[in-house]
């Protein structure tokens, strides 16, 4: 069957978006290592769980937008698995259920290994359940929050605050408010990826009733908002380096500034959604590079 083709399912998983999940775990683990609390086992399980959640979100997004008719011939982005007819709705639902099971196994293993009291165990179970529900409810259901302009906040929470701060807490066993600076930076960069997607598809989304934040703001303010995301992420990392690292290595992330500036300029000058098509991959690369440079700087500053 075509729908069982490995290539088709790999495309449905959208591997090009997975660096966003990787970045949050790497950042959280780097800060934990800076505090002398790095655990390879916990970091590895956190990474696996984050990747599975990202894939679940991608599969659910494919399913939800196809069922609602948002993925249509007018959409400027790449053709999705269900939209193309290569994967049936039933097959996609089965894939989502399998992914949920794998995510639960990985997440529970992480929680049982990393937590040492009932309060933390229950707390992270609830957070994990929230993450699974959020991954699905973005486009699936009668009132998907992605159609109401809440996707950006969700990405900030799960790819930033929970991804980075949660990974740090599971290794360090404590939370420090200062961790929210790199967590917010990581989240803002991930929101930037979503914003490019939403700016690209703004006309089709509006026609289909998908009221993303970009649709609500309009293309001009959506582009200015994108610049805010880029600048905000750099400022958060700079403040963390200034307050905590006290080492030239802590400023390694600045090496990505020229790429971020160039990308931001291109977005501001883009004429329409079609001009934004190649910028999705660029934004993912910018986000990954900035986060990896920050993580490397944190590790080197601690050496």
TrEMBL record:
Cytoplasm keyword on record: no
CDD domains per UniProt: PT_UbiA_UBIAD1
Catalysis performed (reactions): an all-trans-polyprenyl diphosphate + 1,4-dihydroxy-2-naphthoate + H(+) = a 2-demethylmenaquinol + CO2 + diphosphate
E.C. no: 2.5.1.74
GO CC annotations, alphabetized: plasma membrane
Any GO BP annotation: vitamin K biosynthetic process
InterPro entries: MenA (IPR004657), UbiA_prenyltransferase (IPR000537), UBIAD1 (IPR026046)
Pathway per the UniProt entry: Quinol/quinone metabolism; menaquinone biosynthesis; menaquinol from 1,4-dihydroxy-2-naphthoate: step 1/2
Subcellular location field: Cell membrane; Membrane
Membrane topology: Multi-pass membrane protein
Chief location of this protein within or outside the cell: membrane
Transmembrane annotation, as ranges: 20-53, 96-115, 121-141, 153-171, 177-196, 225-243, 280-302
Major enzyme class: transferase
Gene Ontology molecular function: 1,4-dihydroxy-2-naphthoate polyprenyltransferase activity
Coiled coil stretches, renumbered: none
Key words, A-Z: Cell membrane, Membrane, Menaquinone biosynthesis, Transferase, Transmembrane, Transmembrane helix
Family label: Belongs to the MenA family. Type 1 subfamily.
Role description: Conversion of 1,4-dihydroxy-2-naphthoate (DHNA) to demethylmenaquinone (DMK).
Protein name in UniProt: 1,4-dihydroxy-2-naphthoate octaprenyltransferase
Source organism: Photobacterium gaetbulicola Gung47
Gene: menA
């Amino acid at each position: 069957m075509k729908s069982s083709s490995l290539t088709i399912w790999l495309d449905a998983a959208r591997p090009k978006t997975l660096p966003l999940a990787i970045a949050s775990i790497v950042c959280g683990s780097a800060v934990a290592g800076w505090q002398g609390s790095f655990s390879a086992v916990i970091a590895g399980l956190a990474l696996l769980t984050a990747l599975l959640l990202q894939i679940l979100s991608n599969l659910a997004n494919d399913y939800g937008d196809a069922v609602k008719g948002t993925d249509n011939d007018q959409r400027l982005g790449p053709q999705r698995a269900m939209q193309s007819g290569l994967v049936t709705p039933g097959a996609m639902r089965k894939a989502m259920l399998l992914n949920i099971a794998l995510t639960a196994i990985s997440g529970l293993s992480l929680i049982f290994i990393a937590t040492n009291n009932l309060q933390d165990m229950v707390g992270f179970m609830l957070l994990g359940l929230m993450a699974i529900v959020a991954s699905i409810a973005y486009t699936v259901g009668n009132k998907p929050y992605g159609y109401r302009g809440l996707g950006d906040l969700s990405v900030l929470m799960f790819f930033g605050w929970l991804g980075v701060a949660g990974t740090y807490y599971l290794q360090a066993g404590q939370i420090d408010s200062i961790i929210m600076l790199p967590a917010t930076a990581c989240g803002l960069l991930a929101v930037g990826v979503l914003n490019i997607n939403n700016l690209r598809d703004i006309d089709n989304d509006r026609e289909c009733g998908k009221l993303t934040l970009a649709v609500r703001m309009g293309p001009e303010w959506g582009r200015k908002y994108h610049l805010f995301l880029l600048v905000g992420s750099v400022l958060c990392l700079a403040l963390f380096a200034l307050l905590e690292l006290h080492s030239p290595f802590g400023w390694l992330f600045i090496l990505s500034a020229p790429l971020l500036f160039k990308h931001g300029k291109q977005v501001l000058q883009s004429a329409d959604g079609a001009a934004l098509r190649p910028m999705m991959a660029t934004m993912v690369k910018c986000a990954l590079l900035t986060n990896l440079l920050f993580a490397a700087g944190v590790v080197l500053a601690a050496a």
